[in-house]
Amino acid sequence: MPTREEALAQLTAPGEPYELVRETQGGYEVRVFQNAPPTLGDLFADSRSDLPFFVYDDERYSYEEAHQAACRIGRLLVDRYGIRKGDRVAISMRNYPEWIMCFMAITSIGGIAVGLNALWQPEEMEYGLIDSGAKVLFADGQRLERLAACSDAVAVEAIAARRGDGAEYGVPELGDLLRDVPLGPMPPADVGPREDAMILYTSGSTGHPKGVVSTHRNVVSALLSWELDSQVGRVAAGLVWPEPDHQPGTLLAVPLFHATGLHAVCLASFRAQRKIVSMYKWDPEQAAELIERERIDMFIASPAMTGDLVQTARTTPRDLSSLMMVGGGGAPRAPEQVQAIDQWFANATPGSGWGMTETNSIGTGIGGADYLERPTSSGRVSPVLDLRIVGEADQPLGTGERGELQVRGTSVCRGYWNRPDANAEAFTADGWLRTGDVAYLDEDGHLFIVDRIKDLVIRGGENIGCGQVEAAILEHPDAIEAAVYAVPDERLGEEVGATVYATAPLDPEALRAFLADHLARFEIPRYVTLTTEPLPRTASGKILKRTIREDAVAALGAGA
């Protein structure tokens, strides 16, 4: 059998579909797919077919029907709203079919799609809309309600995505607007691979979320990298896949405003011609029903969701044998769950990886026997990326040495929207992205994440900036100091904990109620420790968060 390196060289050689060539990007050399679709618009146009594309409840759309709908939305944006290349158009809604159709339209006409976190409360939504400078917002009823609570500083033209959603708010509805838009081609757009395609917001360790800006090439490179990884695995294992007797399908249970849902589940389905079956919200019993009914063969989600499905698989009468892969990302998966996936699904193998919004969800990948042998590893690097582990002075470290993980390559975003300060902090002078993760590489190139430098809580795949939560707590008139930290959680990986120094008696439930107007529900601390004493600090004045966290976690464990 060829080695992984030999298989990779074979599949990326000149003349091969996944041929890689070297180009200069940002002053350094990267590997680029020679035969990749230049833009997302090309990807969508090349994927037109009569095969089922998107299933939601009793609604079904073929790839062709979705493309035609996107063309009409594109013409609506150009002709009625005057959207031109580089204009930002925001999307904030559940995983409805309109989400991806609007995304297809925006990126095809040269606009920049802004995927807003649908869990955000009005304060956060207002920030995202103002920060991105979005001219138009596609939203469902829940998000329109939050938009109505924003201040007059938000100047955006809203469109209700679903019929009936806009009635209460005086917002035109997409279906009504499209009545006057006949079928026809997508408006022409002079868009190139190096131009901006999307902005997704990600929580940093301090302050407001940052808008991650990715070009068409960044995104398309990530999609083809997954394809290539799959092909390399098959060649290296000597596998020949039989022709499937049904269309491949994937279950969409993670939000499309996340890179996992948008990239790994949705956009990766176009070239593979997968059927996407979308859920309104996560329910493992309903997921099992959909897997059986739609013959789903792939499920990619957070470890909490895949863990729920494992538990369901133990007792459900549903036939889950169509599942071939249960993948994850966004947070570490417990080794016990890796083994359980192999044990409780008849044909599915476990898969995982490491990636970031900034890398367009790719980075490293691992699956099958390799993953079962190394359940704590995140796998080996993507073909279009380079990894390195560095010390405090950015000096490269050797095999097995722990330091900060840095990444560079074709899928790495071009930077943060209107944040030169964040760009200077995140990127080295020669283009390496500082991930904030502490890691090491073994002798075979497998990545192991062991800690983090960034002050984040990763709850079920959601990055929560501790500084942002602390700032919200300090808005309360009785809160003087706050330290926010991660508390281990068996299902979600981590939960949000907070220790608060208050000058007056402060009820934890009252504090949570106060925070509900400032933070999304998932960001509100589950565990609150109150103290009437100032928080301990170092001699230089920094709060001793590690000590506070250790004390709080120990107390929670003692009381469990």
Tell me what the structure shows.
The protein is an alpha/beta fold and 560 residues long. 32% of the residues lie in helices and 26% in strands. It contains 18 helices and 27 strands. A nine-stranded mixed sheet has the order 4-3-12-11-13-14-15-16-17, with helices on both faces. The protein has a seven-stranded mixed sheet with strand order 8-7-5-6-9-10-20, with helices on both faces. A hairpin with a 3-residue loop joins strand 25 and strand 26. The termini are far apart. The mean pLDDT is 93.
Total strand segments: 27
Question: What is the CA-CA span between the terminal residues?
Answer: 51 Å
Largest sheet features: 9 strands, mixed
Could you list the spans in which at least 5 consecutive residues all have pLDDT below 50? none
Instruction: Write down the overall geometry.
Output: globular
Strand content: 25-35%
Q: How large is the radius of gyration?
A: 23 Å
Helical region count? 18
Proportion of residues in helical segments: 25-40%
Mean pLDDT: 93
SS content category: alpha/beta
User: Strand arrangement, largest sheet?
Assistant: 4-3-12-11-13-14-15-16-17
